[in-house]
Amino acid sequence: MKDFRHISEKMETENFGLRSKEYVASEIDLFYERVRLGDLIKISRKLIYHWALYLGSVDGQEHIVVHINGNSVLGSSSASSGSSNPGVMLDPLIEVVGTSKFRIDNEYDFTQNPSPLKDILQRLENEVEELNTCYNVFWNNCEHFVFHLRYNIKRSGQFEKIAAICNTIKSTVMFVVLNHKKFK
Fold this sequence. Notes:
This protein has helices spanning 28-34, 93-97, 117-133, 142-151, 157-182; strands spanning 40-44, 49-58, 61-69, 87-92, 102-104. It is α+β, with helices and mostly antiparallel strands. The chain has a single domain (5-156), classed as Alpha-Beta Complex (endopeptidase fold (from Nostoc punctiforme)).
C-alpha cells in the first residue's frame, strides 16, 4: 500500500474549473507546466474517454497519474499497458496518454465541490483494494473512480449520455411498435 500523505501539502487551486486546450504527446512539457496536483485528466480514446487524476511525484517518479486500468473493446486505458487485468494503476502520464489527445478537465468544480488533496489521497488509500476487484465499464469505470476521488461522488457523464440516448431509442421504438399495431 502506497502512502500518499507527502503529496497532500502541495495541492494548488490554480486550475479550479479549468478545461484546458487539448494537448498531444509532443506538447507534454507544456502540459506539465500547466497541470497541478489533483487535476483530472481526460484522454481521448477510440469510442470513449479515459480519465486519470494527476499526483505529480510518487516514489521518485515524476508526472504520475492514478487511474483504473479497464482495457475493453471501447478503448484501452493505458496506451502502453499490456495488462488486461483491471485495477488501480499508478503510471507516468506520458505512458497513459500515448498518442491520444488529452486535457485538464476540472469543469465540474463549478457544480461539485472538489475535495482537498488530503481527502483525495485518503479515499485513494481506503479504496484501492475494493476498486481492484469491482471494475465495471458501466457502473464503476475510470471516470467514476476519479470523480469519486476528487468530488466524493461516483458519476460518469459519458455513460449517463449513452444511457439517455439508449432510453430515447427504446422509447421511440416502443412508440412506433405500439402505434403501428393501433393503425393496422
